[in-house]
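User: I'm putting together a teaching handout on how multi-component assemblies are represented. Below are the sequence lines for each component of a complex, exactly as they appear in our records. Could you produce the 3D structure of the whole assembly as structure tokens, so the students can see both representations side by side? Please keep the chain order the same as the input.
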Amino acid sequence: MTTENKTGKRRIRLNIIDFIVIIILIGAAVGIAFRFGLVERVKTQVSMDGASISFLVQNIQEASYSYFNIGEEFEDVTHKCSFGTLESKQEFPAETYITDINGNIIKTYVENDRIDLRGVMSSVGKFTDEGFLLDGIHFIAPGSSINIRSSVISVWITVTDIVKTDPNVSTK
Amino acid sequence: MEKGNNSKKHRINAVDVIIILLITVVIAAAAVIFIGGGGIDGLTGNQLVDFEYVIEFRQLREEFTDNIVPGQQLVDAAEKKRLGESMAVNISPSVITNTDMENGKLVYANHPDYYDVDVIVKAKALINDEGEVFIDGTYRLTVGGLIYVQMPNFTGSAYCTEMIIAEDNK
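Assistant: Of course. Below is the structure of the complete assembly, with chains in the same order as your input.
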């Protein structure tokens, strides 16, 4: 609250209501920081681990293979963070299954310019008792389905394996 | 807020009252969201009892089957609620129902690459008067319900196929 003293100067004086409002605002700021993981982000980013994330892309066009550039960075669109740098890639004929006349299921491969792609991404995160946290925050594990993109391709992948490489990688 | 003679008097005006009411409403709402709201109707007691149930991951690729092992903590991926600990794991080929076109009979064919994984989970649960089960007092479990499961080395969706309630908890 603003008041005037004897010399006519305006002074700012806080009453009890102002004090309560300030306390509530501070509490709200702290609550928001916890709610959106800002505290965890600060705590974990000082000691992150390097990780190799293996992944599988199923049944894509053969021409898409050349858009996966080794050394290029990929963004995790699902979690809105960096996913990592592509370290290696391999292409395989796209698997599919058909049923024969006796009802048996037979594995075969699509020969119409379709492939499965397996790759390994060099990434950063935190290994915890609950699993791997990408970028120190987002839980991912084998079985996770994630949309990633580089400058030239956007694709859905299935994580197949996560292995710790370098402990305590410093970031940012 | 202050009288003309500069004597200190804390008088509360209409704006202050509105602010106090707003703050009270916000605090009450926060309390309901973060503390309350999890009440369970018809609860006979607040005791968590030992409880086991079975979930089934269907048609997993073979490379994932080794990632599901006993002794892991399960968490609901959607709401981050605890679901219990895996006690035993049973892996079997996925069975697909097909038709033998030669004689018109049903065929139960094993899938060559996909597997069904049954996991027995042990947890603490609340069971109310209607027999509804709440894992850890919060997660409503039903047979046939789809659960989004997180484990340290695997994540995926599974169906609850069986609830095993001890006789003394019925």
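A couple of points students might notice: The longest strand of chain A covers residues 114-128. Chain A touches chain B at residues 1, 3, 13, 15-17, 20-21, 24, 95, 97, 99, 101-107, 129-131, 139-144, 160-161 (CB under 8 Å).
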